[in-house]
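haha ok so turns out i had the wrong file open the whole time. this is the CORRECT one, sorry everyone. sequence first:
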Amino acid sequence: MMPPATTLPAPSLAMVRPRSPIGDGDPRSDADLALRAQVEPEAFGVLYERYRGRTYRMIYRRLNHREAAEDVTAEVFIKALRSIDGYRPATAPFGGRLSRIASNAVVDHLRARRVGTGLGAVLERPDPTVRVEDEALARVEAARVWSVVDELSHAQRTAVTLRLATDLPIAGIAGRMDRSEGAVKQLLNRGMATVRAQLQDAAVA
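then structure:
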C-alpha cells in the first residue's frame, strides 16, 4: 500500500504519466483503474492519458487562456491523485469526479486572479483620495461576498464567479458553462438573490 498522503512528497504529473503509450487503448474500466491507482501509480497514468485532453478543453473553454488552462489542468490531476485513496467508484464515475474537481479549480483560479489583481493595483497605484481604512473595509466586504458565494450550489457558484471575477456577459458565461443564456440568467438571478439575502441577514444580525 502507498504511505499516507501526509508522508508523500508533493505529487507531480511526472509521477502519473505511463511509461508506455497506453491510455484509451487500455481495456480496463475507469473504476478498475481508479482502485488500482491506490496501490499502483501507473494505473493513474492511464486515467491521466484518458482524460487529460477533454479536461484541458473544458478548462480552456472557461478560461480562454492557454497557459492558465495548462496550469489548472495540471492542478486538477494533482488534486485527483492526492485524493485517490478516498475515491469509491460506487459514489460517482471517475470522469464526473474529475469534472467536479476541474470546475472548482476554475472557480478558485478566477477568484484568486481577481483578488490578486485588485491587491496589486492598490499596492502599485495607491489612490491618495481613498483612505487605508476604507480600502480595508472594502476588502472585508468582498471577503463576505465570496464567503456567501462559496455556499451556493455548484452551478450557481460557477456562474456568479464568472460574472464577478471576469465581468463576462451572459453569452460568454453560457459558452463557458455549456448552457443556454436563459439557464445562465436563472442561475445568476437565483445566486445573486441568495447572496443579497444572506448579506442583509448578516447586516441585521
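The domain at 127-205 is CATH 1.10.10.10 (Arc Repressor Mutant, subunit A).
again sry for the mixup
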